[in-house]
Design goal:
With 187 residues, this protein is of the alpha/beta class. It is built from 5 helices and 6 strands; from the N terminus they run βαβαβαββαβα. 35% of the residues lie in helices and 16% in strands. The chain has a 6-stranded parallel β-sheet, with helices on both faces. The two termini are 23 Å apart.
Length: 187
């Protein structure tokens, strides 16, 4: 299945405090060394405009011309959506995992209320302290993201004990296939 990702550049967009070594995002980077991480100047201050600008910057940097898949977590999901809403070019799809509630960060008015311009999958949890699954499903519907209720996984982070989170990788492979099929129809 890893070959399904070969035609894509994959960016990891962590949430607050970055993703530590036991977080599935960090584990995925060890499994797939070509995955690139969006780095923030201050991981403790969630600033949507600045974080989104860093997503933009990494998307535009480098000579890799392959279409991009973005794997985002928590506030990184909000930054990714903000970036994508401004400019979807060269993004093939986004995986939004346990997005933070935009209301908690007072950024609702800065996020799109219409479908995203690219295929997306959103994973929520029934006991996520950062956004209830019903609210995540509502945002997924607004953005026309495929919503996956992951069950009681908390914030879907290192404390969730997911290891390499193979179910999440399956969703990434699904997204890659969906993006590939969408690109094939448009080229």
């Amino acid at each position: 299945m890893a070959h399904a990702l070969a035609e894509f550049r994959v960016l990891i967009a962590p949430g607050l405090h970055n993703s530590g070594p036991d977080h599935w995002q960090s584990r995925w980077q060890r499994l797939f060394p070509a995955f690139e991480r969006v780095e923030q100047d201050d991981w403790d201050v969630p600033d949507l405009a600045r974080w989104s600008a860093r997503v933009d910057q990494l998307r535009q940097q480098g000579s890799d011309t392959r279409p991009t898949l973005i794997v985002a977590h928590s506030f990184g999901s909000l930054a990714t959506v903000h970036s994508l809403a401004r400019d979807p070019s060269n993004v093939a799809g986004v995986l939004l995992v346990a997005p933070a509630d935009p209301e908690k960060f007072d950024v609702v008015d800065q996020l799109p209320l219409k479908p995203l311009a690219r295929p997306s999958v959103m994973v929520g949890s029934t006991n996520d302290p950062w956004m209830a699954a019903s609210r995540a499903a509502c945002w997924a519907e607004r953005w026309q993201s495929r919503f996956v209720n992951g069950g009681p996984l908390g914030h879907i982070n290192a404390e969730s004990g997911l290891g390499d989170w193979p179910e999440g990788l399956e969703m990434l492979y699904f997204l890659a296939e969906q993006a590939h099929n969408t690109q094939s129809r448009t080229h």
